[in-house]
Amino acid sequence: MRASTTDKTTHPALIFWIVAGWVGYCLLPWYMVEDGLWSFEWLFGGYPFDADYAPAAFLIGQGEKIWLAPLLIPLTLPILVLGRVKSDPLYSGILILSGALGFGWLIAQGFSIGIRGFNYDWLASLFGDIRLRQFGMGYGAMICASAFLFLLTQGIAARGAINGDVFVVSAIGGVITIVTAFVFFPIAKMLFAAFVTEDGAYSISVFFAKFFDDRLWGLGCLWGARCGAAWNSLFLAIMVGFITTALGLAFALVVTRSGFRYKRALRALTVLPIITPPFVIGLALILLFGLSGTVTQYFAELFGMQPTRWLYGMPGVLIAQTLAFTPIAFLVLIGVVEGVSPSMEEAAQTLRANRWQTFKTVSLPLMRPGLANAFLLGFIESMADFGNPLVLGGNFDVLSTEIFFAIVGAQYDQGRAAVLAIVLLFFTLSAFYAQRMWLGKKSYTTVTGKGDSGVHPLMPNGLAIPVMIVALGWALFTAAVYAMIIYGSVVELWGVNNSLTFKHYVTAFSVRFEEEGIRWTGAAWDSFWTTITIAAIAAPLTAAVGLVTAYLLTRQSFAGKNAFEFGTMLSFAIPGTVIGVSYILAFNVPPIEITGTGVILVISFIFRNMPVGVRAGIASMSQLDRSLDESSLTLGANSWQTFRRIILPLLRPAILAALVYSFVRAMTAISAVIFLVSAEYDMATSYIIGRVENNDYGLAIAYSTTLIFVMLAAVGLLQLLVGRVQIGRRMSQSRTTSQEEPT
Amino acid sequence: MKKLTTTALGTVIALAASMSAAQAEKLTLYCSAQEEWCQLMARGFEDATGIDVNMTRKSSGETFAQIRAESSNPKGDVWWGGTGDPHLQAAEEGLTMEYVSPMRGELHDWAISQAESAGNRTIGIYSGALGYGYNTDLLAANNLPEPACWKDLLKPEYKGHVQMANPNSSGTAYTTLASMVQIFGEDEGFDFMKGLHANINQYTKSGSAPIKAAGRGESTIGIVFMHDAVAQAVAGFPIKVVAPCEGTGYEIGSMSIIDGARNEDEAKAFYDWALSADAQNLALQVNAFQVPSNKGAQTSDSAPDMSTIKLINYDFKKYGSSDERKRLLQKWDEDVSTLPQ
Questions:
Q1: Residue B237 forms contact with A (CB below 8 Å)
Q2: Which GO terms describe its biological process (chain A) (predicted)?
């Protein structure tokens, strides 16, 4: 029987991972190479015998790191099943056993033995105080770990999970592992840090002492003193949520339900905040409304008033955040406002409701999911915002900046940072939950398969006039602020010497042409190239992880799918500062030791931005009929082929959205990045922060302006590269724009 | 891109050297002075020795935090610049390494006493006196008298015009607090801080931010190190620098080698080089107006003349210790910062 199925028992995937495991164990340096992931100096630096670069097999051969020896067993076992068929229980059993054993042992030894020997006292007392140490995992260990993981998933698939589909099981296993490693593990590590006393012991009272701190929960602002950072953050976030939602709604109504002509210009506004580096808006506001700001001075002279510092504190932060996040609310709401079915509104009007009644009782309630989403986004963005409070906060402390200064300030208190991060996380997750509760189980379905050729009614006049005034006023204000930004980058020394100059651009981006080629002499080039490189590496990875996850969520059903979905979305609700702190805590020590490298930046971007890829993927995938997959499967393709050749090509808009978003976010992110940059990998935003600190506004703004244009170009380029979906539809009927526009 | 080429080049050279195990010498420098100065020091050392320098610039508080976080696995070799307190604290916690440089003979006494008070784990590289600066335009526009002493700042007409950093987050502001305690005695010193609190418009996070705000005209008076104020004046902002009449405290910018440095020899080479007169003269090129610790180094003409400033006998050992620091900060937190303004 076995002989008759020899050609079916080669198992290419199994052979691949067995070989990979052996290569990782015997050929590649087991530990992290200090010179960086991409340098290959180790090949000439005494490899394979030098202890820094040696593969595990050579280390054991020299009698070192003997705790790696047991890994040979799970590496050898799978070879035994090569000749067996998948349905053989021994096949799956051995694969599961060796995969779990190998993976488990790798993790256990990684956490038990650190740089200073045993990490736990009980281990040291058990084995005695021998001199053991090891550094973070390198290529060898990583590949070995992946090999064990995928041996395990192949074993599980062979048992019949998900119809024995190896690709799907492996994808699920892979995503769960990386989400656990890079989302849950650091967050858990940070939660523990909140309970650590100064001597390193765990104590619950430390947490409470830091939690019930007056600086956190004080209500002094009710009687003239100052309020705690938690109240400030909460209050600010609620205000920003409401105001941005209201303004966003006003914009959406003007675009969809009014006779306003320049709708395209309004839509263009939505792109701005996404490609604006942090601080820039804050700086422009200072230059306009600060004590010596242009507008302040003008009015002070006009009315003979004493200029004040009203901008610094809550008002300034509120204005800056509203400027920054209103377009995001608009982006969310426009889809919803457009989606409200005209037939329902027409039905209401047929029933003799006037325009105001229709709007109030039909249109507005149907917009509820959009309103809730917009509010939630404004709330979370405001909570997580770091740049604006830093520049404009004055004495108004908010959680995100407090976390930063708890870590970097003279007080240096990681525990306090962790406690603050927990409070912040609690707020954002509660908002997330509250939004789901509020939307409840009511149906908001308005887009159905039936023809719906109605036209949205115009807004009632009583509403249209104020909405138009508010929306246009705010749009003009935004335009003025951005004009200020460009102007600010070309003046010598703002407020002191207003002569025009390109000096700042030259300082930042000068190049010299020499015989050997171009020399990048400008001060900003280093961080600029690093930023571009990191963003370019992170973007496709983010899109890939996001889309695979979306595929699993929409197309496959498996146990624990809800928890899986929650896990992948979690990093969206976690503010960047929290991610930054937790990454430092978790990844500065083995087994995963990546602080100070470019890898940690790439990874933080992947997991920060993955939810967008997931959401975009889910949205587009739900539009693709399952019969497409089914016919592909019926024709004999496996699920990987189906994914690659059927689904992927149809997902271009989602891919584009994920690529653009993650690229742009990687260039403008600051809150997590500020903790993770290092000498070699300095990012543009952290360079800009340094210039701002140094009073060098001209250079900071010039750099930011350049980034804005670079990102615009990149977005255009990506659109060209990825191309558009070619769906065999007659294009005459409608310009299927909603499919093609990146969101 | 540049990095990639260098790496590729390095690989080729390594090949050409017929697989010799010798690696290029390198040094990871944590720098807590201003960006230009840090860049210049890094490039200057590369030119002088051929050792590659990887430099990160972060404030002294951030750097201290980083060194502490990395203590079980140090990534940096030398920490150069920044106010002395975190260096002393790092020495106290054993995060930095003892080293007695052969350059000591060329240094001022204050630089060496800084080293001795920390068990030779750190050394002074420059010093700067505390003071304040004001925006002359704004002072005139508001018809305010010109302040000359610390106590002048308590006058009610300066209400809302004074800015200083928060001692919890800034070494500069902690030096201010400790100086007041030493000038006026603890009780009167805290009374001074309380009086000052009434006039403060904002406690900034970073130490030099107050004078930068004053330079831009966003605040009138900023309490900072005088060399920071001079730098703003030289940059073209309307700032006048004041050395307070009661006398004032000062900082000693320091340098330490990180304990467990991966490139210890290179770190020592940098340490010795940074104490030389040539290296310290680089400060003049980047408008750093601190007083260098090498007796043979030059001082800028614009720099505050230390001989005319009344300096107190600042007790770095006592006020740099973490216990005293914690006590003073807690007292300030409880007695001063909670008062209504």
A1: yes
A2: transmembrane transport
